[in-house]
Amino acid sequence: MANPGYGKRDAPDQRPRTNHDFAHLPAREAAVAAYIDRLPGGADISVKTLAKHLPYGQCALRTTLNNLRQAGHLRRGREHLTGTGSQLWITRTWFTRTARGDDWWAAFTRGDVPQEQAEEPHRRPTRSRAFILLVALGRTAPALSLSEADCAALAPLVGEWFARGASDEAVLHALTNGLPTPVHHPAGLIRRRLTSKIPPEPAAVRPSLRVLECAKCGVPGRPEALPGGICGTCRGETPHRPASPLPASAIHSRAAGIRAEMSRRREESRT
Questions:
Q1: The pTM is what?
Q2: Domain ranges of the chain
Q3: How crowded is residue 25: how many other Cβ atoms within 10 Å of its Cβ?
């Protein structure tokens, strides 16, 4: 693990993990990406640390991380956590198994993450976290065993608990604590508890301030100026030079002309 405040950060709204998340990448990049994807938040994913656990040298890993950045799986930057009372910016490395384009990363830095498009109709829908919890409920409390239809009908109510920050343990405790004996209608009892015991909506939290950095030189910049995570200078582009400022003599001459015009207008107003 990295020092507190540093290390890997998972980008939001990733698709569920599958066995072919990185099939579009070369073999080495796919292996490293799969390894990073399974690391917990805050894990040290620096080149030096990765080289201790993977069969690749630091040079190869540095190239691999750059390739993952170009493929949209990784960005480096800085983040200021709101409400900390500090002016310090913390270095961040964001990782996503779902490849993202430059527009998505730009929206991410603004705290305005675009929603993913729905899966293609021909794909089999993935069971939601809420549905899985309800299916497994019967193993925790056999009196609350539900049918598949009941699980599908009650899953949106459990999903609302999750949206309000409730953990799996909190939902299970609310549903199983102090059960009557016997339970005549499990689905009805669960619906009542999910409705009557739902926690309050969390207070609105201001999004963290974020800025991306060039992966090569580390200079911070607007996302629009860092396509693919690289600044214009590192891409070999000639920086735009602003027009040369006016010489001091021209400024003095212009100021004298303005004063003369103002004096003339004052004289005209008196006559």
A1: 0.52
A2: 1-112+208-271, 129-196
A3: 19
